[in-house]
Amino acid sequence: MGMPKATTAVATGLATGVRVLQPPTGPPAQAPARSSTPPVTEGQAIPPPEPFQVIPAQMPENLTPEEQRKHQALYVTTLQASHALRDKFGMVGILEVVRMSDPHLNTLALGMDLTGRNDTPPRREPEFYLPQSYFMNPPSPKLEHFSKFSLETLFYMFYSMPRDQQQALAAWQLYERGWLYHKTEKMWIAAQPQDDGAGNARNVYYDPMAWEVKYVPKEVDQAGFLTKEEVRVRGVTP
Q1: Sign of CA dihedral 158, 161, 163, 169
Q2: 188: helix, coil or strand?
């Protein structure tokens, strides 16, 4: 009785050391199922992707329950894990910081006040000594000095040093130079009119806002000027 051809081929291959592929003996393999998603035509919206399923990780052996839990958390991918970053670090994650419900999250996002940790060393004011010359006030200008000041300096001292003796001395020197102070108009007006260039004599006043001499825009009451006696500083001016 002769051997079948397939058996003879296997035996020949084993004897010669050559690998012989046997024909499959089981049921024929089925073709892969076609996708149920219809093809997308031009102008048609692309459907959203299907959510992925749980992909279990190949867990090593001899792990403690705690190590198994960590391994699952690190290597197992779930649908919830896909939304973890978006829920923690996106616009939704800002709500957890605003609510101030998690102290650890607040420390991570907002930090901590280092000045309240009692880490600063104690401070002590160093001892120092200042000589008495440091506490002496500078001497005030004398009456003879005001005659050397320019007109702008006198006006500066009058407007920038209220209720000071230097203001009174500056006013006295302005009167010495032919300027009069009008109580109603609150301005300094020159006693002598000046030529405006057109052959007209007009009074001029000093404008502290523009810091220059201007022509008086209107007639002023002559009775509103301070007299020189009212400006005189008793015990200082002659």
Answers
A1: negative
A2: strand
Per-residue burial over 104-120, b if 16 or more Cβ lie within 10 Å, else e, is eeeeeeeeeeeeeeeee
Torsions phi, psi of 135, nearest 5? -95, 0
- 216 vs 1, which has greater pLDDT? 216
Distance CA 72, CA 65 (A): 11
The pLDDT tens digits of the residues spanning 155-207 come to 999 999 998 889 999 999 999 999 999 999 999 999 888 877 777 778 899 99
pTM: 0.43
| CATH number, domain containing residue 152 | 2.30.30.1020
User: With 60 as the cut, is the pLDDT of residue 3 above it?
Assistant: no
| Count: domains in the chain | 2
Burial of 180 (0-12, 13-18, 19+ CB in 10 A): buried
Domain end point (choices 85, 110, 135): 110
Query: What's the whole-number mean pLDDT along residues 98-127?
Result: 78
User: Considering the domain boundaries, does residue 193 fall inside one?
Assistant: yes
Q: Which amino acid is at 70?
A: K
Q: What is the span of the domain harbouring residue 72? A: 65-110
Instruction: Specify the amino acid at residue 90.
Output: G
User: Quick check: is 47 in a domain?
Assistant: no
- Radius of gyration of the CA atoms of the chain, in A: 52
